Amino acid sequence: MTARSAEDRALIRRYLEGDVDAFDELMRAHEDRVFGICLRMMKDRDQALDATQDVFLTVFRKADRYKEQAAFSTWLYRVSVNTCYDHLRRRQRKRTEAIPEHLDPSDPRSGDVLNAVELRPDIETALAGISPEFRAAVVLVDLEGMSLDGAADTLEVPIGTVKSRLFRARKQLAQELGNLAPGLEHPTEEP
Amino acid sequence: MSDNNLDLITELINGRLSPDERRAALARVAADPELQAEYETQLAVSSLLSEAPPPTMTAAERSELRTALRQQLHLDDAPAPVALAPSRWQRWWAPVAGLAAAAAVIIGVVIVLPDSGSDDSLQFAAAEVETTLQATRNDGADIGGSADAADGVDEEPTTTTAAASEELAPSIATEDLADDTLELAGEASPEALPHIPEVDLNELGLAYANGEDEFESELSKSSVVPGPVATSWDGACLDGTADGTNDTSRTIVATATIEGVHVIVVSVVPPTEEPYLVALDVDSCEELASTRP
User: Fold this and answer.
1) Which of B47, B70, B80 sits opposite A183 (nearest CB)?
2) What is the model's pTM?
3) pLDDT tens per residue across span B25-41
4) Are the C-beta atoms of A136 and A155 separated by less than 8 Å?
5) How far apart are CA B64 and CA A14, in angstroms?
6) Which residues on chain A are in Cβ contact (under 8 Å) with B227?
């Protein structure tokens, strides 16, 4: 168990005992990463903030159900990804209603681009163009630096599924992005 | 691209290969131009993404988020934020009672017209439940004092043929009906019901009473809570022990999916008491509503 993981468990216990300071400490420890996942999943900053709020609301409301067999962060990121899926589904549902094209959130001409993120705009757009499941794999592994095992735990899918989603997601992203710089590590350069 | 090669490339980029394994994998990639091209593309995308700086919230966003959470969790006035008050159950119970009332209409159709297995009668029953499932939600919104009109939801009554439903549900929103599905028992195997994760009905009831948006939001959150998940439904709800004699007959009248919560309506015929209907959460077998006297 990592120090962070042990600390999280202690904080959750304190929170459940009514210690409000534990809330602040948990927020400080995790809010940026949860926001990062949400922003990269949702693309839109305001929607990412909404999703982040929902994630923590769920986590704190259900804190008594947290089973300590798993790392708190795994549970938290699982809730994050699933909350983003839900928000994306809701957004998709709303978009099926007639929306003028210039107001379509996925339209690069819309105001969302101004709100968007620390990623290059072309990467941003390419990410938004792949399925949420593929995007989640890329966000967790490539953007958040999670291991394949960690991503599999978070997404509650077999590791083979993570590999497959990751591979296909990158393939689609490469097609979207066009010419890419050559890889940093060339196999023939290996001794 | 074969699964083996896909695996190889992903392991090379993200896996924890030993130096020897890594050397062998790279040699294999180098020997196959197609594989090498794919590896380079994958690596380039991965590198591009991993170099991106992590996004952060501004101080204002951070403060706003924490303030909102503190308010919603009642942290400043409640020492035990996760305790569930019993009254929440009561608030949940009231709107769901509409479901039971409509289900009573269905069982009436099924019992009174046992020989009329025609499509018409089945469709009538289906319409009843679908209408009332939706109606109970609106009823809850009314109880919570929230106005769907603020969200642009049409509050005009549209359709209901059951007087009981009409009485319980003065307003019916139609635009969300497409999200609800209903199948009469017999048209779908109960075993084929989708898996549903644990649902906290107390929280759900509270959200329900606060309006449709919060209800939907809470439902969606419920679906992400880790917990015991039924891997299949074996009809255990019908073996419930509440009334439990072997002579008690239990039959599924209808199944419905409301925003991901799978509900069955069961007619219960005890040997010595009046028959009644009960609505159960399929996953937990928890009773949502009943017409039990």
Assistant:
1) B47
2) 0.52
3) 999 999 999 999 999 99
4) yes
5) 23
6) 65
